[in-house]
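[Meeting: bench + compute handoff]

Bench side (C.D.) handed over the final construct sequence. Compute side (W.E.) agreed to return the predicted structure before the next meeting so the bench team could plan truncations. Sequence as handed over:
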Amino acid sequence: MTAPRTATVRPDRLAIRPLDLDADAGLVHGWVTHPKSAFWLMQGLSVDEVRAEYASIAANPHHDAFIGLYEGSPAFLVERYDPAYEELVGLHEARPGDVGMHFLCAPADTPLHGFTRAVIFAVMEYLFADPDTVRVVVEPDVRNTAVHALNEAVGFEVVEKIAKPEKEAYLSLCTRDAFEAARKKAATAQAGDETKEQAPR
């Protein structure tokens, strides 16, 4: 099943809810095993194996999973983790307020321009809505050039290249101030684009 798409992305119609293992396992399986989701590292897993993976996350006090909605329909997957206990132990000097993040947009037959960018802004807003969040931490595969550009757009800075068991990654950090600056920059750019579109020709 692919995510719904409309002519224009409406950021106000994006929402995030906890993953429901019983309701969402089959849907998530289709997303994470899709060829376009190779960097999620779950290719070839069965529905039961994907369910078991997310059951393990649900039972972990340091890891959460969420489903992102667009216009009320499932459209993306989010994971939040504590890097002091998960993913980056021994590779990152975690501080209080650090929050790790992964996100994956559902593969679409006809991708909507700007959708993934809108999603990562929504995810970052969701994480920083928690006043205890000081920095967001990510560790994307060094080969994933598309996500590097998205991370930069929301304010991430690469700290260093790290070697994880499953990949070489760019450890990257985004502070609350850096995200706010990126959000203001994006809003200004969007306003400029809208002004151009409305100008007489």
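W.E. noted at the follow-up: The first strand starts at residue 14 and ends at 18. C.D. will use this when planning the next construct.
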